[in-house]
Structures are given as structure tokens and as C-alpha cells.
Amino acid sequence: MKVPLVNLARQYQNIKSEIDEATSRVLESGRFILGKEVEDFENSLADYMGMKHAISVGSGTDALLLSLRAIGLEPDDEVILPTFTFVSPAEVVALLGAKPVFVDVERDSFNIDVSKIESAVTARTKAIMPVHLYGQSADVDEIKEIVGKRGLHIVEDSAQCVGATYKGSKVPSRGHLGAVSFFPTKNLGCFGDGGAVLTNSDAFAKELRAIRSHGSMRKYEHTKLGTNSRLDAIQAAILAVKLKYLDEWNNRRRETAKRYSAEFSSFVEVPVILEERDHIFHQYTIKCEERDKLIEHFKKKGIACAVHYPRPLHLQPAYSYLGYKEGDFPVSEALSKEVLSLPVYPELTEAEIDAVVDGVKSYFK
Question: At residue 37, what are phi and psi to the nearest 5 degrees?
């Protein structure tokens, strides 16, 4: 049986009538940029997250970029972030002329190792950017203790963590700003690119709304340098439909993950759910020393899988100018050779889940 890593067409079919009604409503309105659809979705998202403001933007990467603009990141400032993650956090720091400062991650959670942050702080440090990888929160309260001593900012990258909780609160909610992504394959995904910034700060919210629209809060009046990063109304309408199903979909991912872990724990390292955290399994990622051979086995079985991520950021050519070398972050470097993500999307059938289970077990027999 062939099992894809995701199946967005299947998800669409399950909610087709609601999606079609929402998109038709936008098309018939003739209002495609900002407007009521976007405002309604922003309000719904903020309510769901338990936050005061949700400012939608053009992508998750833009959500990070605009967040750094909002805190006043300047050239030669430094931002501390994990090296084992997708490229966006480091990318936006560098694009603004600042310096990404990498630290290693925890092997069990894949998230930033808070014990390594303090030694990375310098007089130029402006912010710490924890990435809540695969659907589980980093230890933000521990980071807040470091930040509180120095007046730094916390910008949370929650692209993979929409719907998860940390100590009873939705993620992100503990930092100054939190960025989320609505890339189609995310747990809450639109039909294209999209993102949002969450904050409880009125001042940051005002700044972000201006920056996303050419530095303007009033037509043809530009108070600051801005950009064009707005969520399309049609995407907001789609996301408003999907938001209603997010908890149900996340629960389905947890159920599948629970079965996987019960079936796989004798063969591979399965994901660890830490105390006071609620995992929403954007990815179900195992650790396996024979990862590459297991991938070849899956190919023969027709089971899709993916490596998130095959090379830590400090070893990427784009960041060679920073002077990092192999061996600097041993946990991240080891993980890049062992991690493997398996299908965990909520529309998986029982037969497909059985096929994934059989795929793993048959390799280790």
C-alpha cells in the first residue's frame, strides 16, 4: 500500500462544502486584500490562542521578519537561535543585517538547549528565538529568566506548533512576539502561503500592522519603512473554516502518534513528550542510527517519509561566513543523521497506519 507523507486533497474533500462556500463568498464580495474576512479570522485566531492580538501576514517567514523589525533589530545586533531547525529563523536575522548566533538542542525534545543560551549572550544580543520544533514547545519560562536579567526580547517561532500548549497556555503566549505559519502542510494550513504574529502588546501590534502594509496606517501616509506582507482575504476565509477543526485534527495526530510509539519503542527512539507540554505532532519524528537504510526499505514498501533536517544551519553554506565548523554542536549534528519523519496527518486511514507500522516492524525483523 502506498502511504503519502501528507494528503491535502483528502482533507479538502472532507470539508469541501464549507471551503467552497467560504471562497465563493470572498469572490462574490470583490474584497481580496484585508477587510472583514481577514479581521474576523485574526480575531478568531487571537481568541483561540488566548492572545490580545493576531496580525496576519504573507507567510511564516514574514511573521518572523516583521517581528524582528518590530523589536527594532539593527545591523550588528545578535539573535540566539537553535541550529537544528528550518532555515527561516536564521535567514530573517541575516537579511536584516544582524548576526545569527547558534546554540545546540536537546536530544530528547529537539528544541533549543536552554542551558547553552547564557554562554551565547553578549553585549550585542537583542533577542532569543526559540523554535518549537515538530509540535512541542521549548522551555520558554526558563528562557524568560535569562531574558529578564538583561532586557532582551523573546520571539517564538511557532510555525510547527499551532494548537499545542505549554504549562496550560497555548503556544506562543509566553514571549513578546510569536510567529506562526499557515503553509499548506502545517496543522493549520491555507491554500498557499500565509502567517501571523501573536502578541499581547498594543504597541507591537500597531507597529506590525503598519509594517505589513508599506509602513502605513492611513492611505498614502507612510510613517516608517514597511513592506507588502498581507494575508489574502480568500486565505483568511479558508483558515477560518479550518480553525474550527484544528483541535480535532491535532487529537487525531496524537492518537496516531500514541499507537506508533507503542509499536516502535522497541526498535527506534520515539518522540518524548515533556512535562507540562502538549505535543500536536506536526511531525512524528523518530531517531534511528540506520535511518538511511530504513528510508530505502520504506521506498520499497511505498511509504513516504522525510528528513527534517539533514544538515544543521551552522553547516549550511549560506552561513559559512559565521565561522562555525563540524563538531561545534554535536547533538544537532548527530540528530541530522538519525531523524526520520513518518506520515501522521489526521486523514490517515487505519489501513495506512497499519502499513506504516508494518513498514517499521518488517525492517527490524
Answer: -60, -45
Concatenated DSSP letters of 229-264: ---BHHHHHHHHHHHTTHHHHHHHHHHHHHHHHHHH
pTM: 0.97
| Catalytic-role residue among 126, 170, 186, 242 | 186
- Strand, helix or coil for residue 339: strand
- Angle formed at CA 106 by CA 103 and CA 111, multiple of 5 degrees: 75
Please check whether residue 3 lies inside any domain of the structure: no
The number of folded domains in the chain is 2
pLDDT at site 46: 98
pLDDT for the residue 149: 81
Is residue 186 part of the annotated active site? The answer reads yes
- Dump pLDDT digits (tens) for 113-166: 999 999 999 999 999 999 999 999 999 999 999 998 899 999 999 999 999 999
Name the domain boundary from 208, 243, 278.
Answer: 243
The one-letter amino acid at 197: V
Tell me how far apart the alpha carbons of residues 115 and 129 are, in angstroms, rounded to a whole number.
14
Q: What is the domain-level CATH number for residue 147? A: 3.40.640.10
Same-domain check for residues 222 and 352: no
